Amino acid sequence: MRECARTRIRETRRLRRSSPLSRPCEGHEKARAPPPTGSCPLQTKPRCSCLSSYYRAAAALCPSFSVVQLSRCRENKENRWRCSLFFLGARRSDKISLTLRIFSDGALRCFRRARVSQLHTSAAAMSRQLHARRIEGIDKNVWVEFTQLAAEYKAVNLGQGFPDFPPPSFVQEAFCKAVSGGFALHQYTRAFGHPPLVKILAKFFGRIVGRDIDPLDDILVTVGAYQALFCTFQALIDDGDEVIIIEPFFDCYQPMVKMAGGKCVYVPLRPKKDKCETSADWVLSPGELASKFTSHTKAIILNTPNNPLGKVFNREELQVISDLCIKHDVLCISDEVYEWLTYNGAKHIKIASLPGMWERTITIGSAGKTFSATGWKVGWAIGSTHILKHLRTVHQNSVYHCPTAAQEAVAHGFQREFEQFGKPESYFIQLPANLQVKRQKLAQCLKSVGLQPIIPEGGYFMMADISAIKANLPDLPGQDEPYDHRFVKWLIKNKRLATIPVSAFYSHEHCKDFPNYIRFCFAKEDFTLNAAEKILQEWSESK
To answer: 306 with 197, same domain?
Structure first.
């Protein structure tokens, strides 16, 4: 037994001595320190030949080998080099059986357990991947890109959807009173909605949908409609769930569904072939819509009035959607932030008011759009208690609480409108009347320069067809981008007028079918609209 042990020891020592990696290279004693953490040894001159062999051995082991990081440690009274290898594109779950243990400052001894981390490169160090995979592919944002471009060229901004006129005086006064009042309105209020606000919202909208709404259980106040949408998707959409999105759609729907793990299924509104003058001429095909419902469909998103088109869905169209939701046991997420902005007799109908839809509808609203105060960021979700309780779970574990003073002011605004409802003094009557004049002004201006406006039935926006003037424009750079993106960039840079390309409101599979539309916002002061009109007229005269 002792002789066998001695033989194994002698053989091990002989193998170590005979290995070209076992003997330090010339000058190795002066190069004991490993490469600096964060550096790439394969792209720098090796410190010594034995370490160079070490790198070559590791690279030969795995073709996707990218970077070796070494650190020295003491384990069981032995000198070891601890090796971390990083592989480009490796997933968290990928593993490879690899550990390099070097004895005698350079001998390649064996390979065993090691995890592969995805490479993350920074100027200072290498580390594992920082971002979560759920945000991959959703980093681009049309608002960031074109808002920055408009600011850079100091363009007249008809792109972003916010009014450049103030809210009505009665809500401004209510806000001033709230912030100048006692301590209570400067502190936390109820997490799911300021009591005065949820009470008047329940009273106001209960009258519209024709049912009693519980202010504490059926309403969730959020930081704008954006957060109401986010809570809805996070609370109700699970991995693999399909969500039907009607195109064109507000651009946040798609990334929010993807972040929740859902799959987007698209169905476009299409213009009628015989005419396309107003948003009412863009219609859903009932057969095409029905074909999108499957056993995996969890929800459909409805936006009425629609952004960017301005379409107000009529009762017959809503009934088609309602029947399919009930048939397939599907939720309806109804984004109705522009509900008070309808024109020429178009009537907004809440889909939750249709038979059988209250129990499966989440209605999203916005005080910012209602009272022309988008910076206040007060929104809400209204729905049945058995749905809203899940949204409250997301809300309480993320935002938890919304600003108290702004909610107090919005509560006063709705109380005033409840009392004035249907009267000429109502802001909900005055605002759309004023915007209808601005809508007509913009439409006439666009027609005068050869653009074909799509007259909206509701909302802040007007789409225009630019195909008639394409022949008069120079070749636009950026052939890899949709034409409307290139046109809007040209318009901002050369004419100092900012708009938004409509293809940004379509899926990748359908955006190629709608490359010739841009979106204008007409919820602006006359001064702004006049400046835009001047730019367009000068452009028309120069052609």
So the answer is: yes
Cβ neighbors of 355 (< 8 A, separation 6 or more) are 322
Q: Is the pLDDT of residue 169 over 80?
A: yes
Same structural domain for residues 234 and 343? yes
- 333 in the same domain as 205: yes
CA torsion through residues 104, 105, 111, 113, sign: positive
- C-beta separation of 420 from 439 below 8 A: no
Question: How many domains, the chain?
Answer: 3
* Angstrom distance (rounded) from CA 292 to CA 510: 15
Residue 129: pLDDT band (50, 70, 90) is: confident
Burial environment of residue 44 by CB neighbours within 10 A (0 to 12, 13 to 18, 19 or more): exposed
Check residues 146 and 41 and name the one with the higher pLDDT.
146
Q: Are 287 and 378 within one domain?
A: yes
**CA 99, 103, 106, 108 torsion: positive or negative?**
negative
Question: pLDDT category, 436, cuts 50, 70, 90?
Answer: very high
136 lies in a domain?
no
DSSP bridge partners of 465 = 452, 517
The single residue listed with the structure tokens 């009392």 is 419
Mean pLDDT of 525-530: 95
The mean pLDDT of 270-277, rounded to a whole number, is 87
**How far lies 344's CA from each of 217, 312, 355, 460, in Å?**
36, 11, 27, 14
- Among 413, 424, 460, smallest CA distance to 439 is for 460
Q: Which domain holds residue 78?
A: 21-130
Three-state SS for 484?
Answer: helix
CB atoms within 10 A of CB 145: 16
User: Where is pLDDT greater, at 127 or 469?
Assistant: 469
How far is residue 427's CA from residue 424's CA, in Å, rounded to a whole number?
A: 8
Residue with tokens 């889909």, as numbered in its chain: 351
Q: Map 154-185 to HEC letters.
A: CCEECCCCCCCCCCCHHHHHHHHHHHCCCHHH
Tokens of 103: 């004895």
Task: State residue 107's pLDDT score.
Answer: 36
Residues 478 and 424 sit within 8 Å (Cβ to Cβ): no
Pairing of strands 156-157, 497-498: parallel
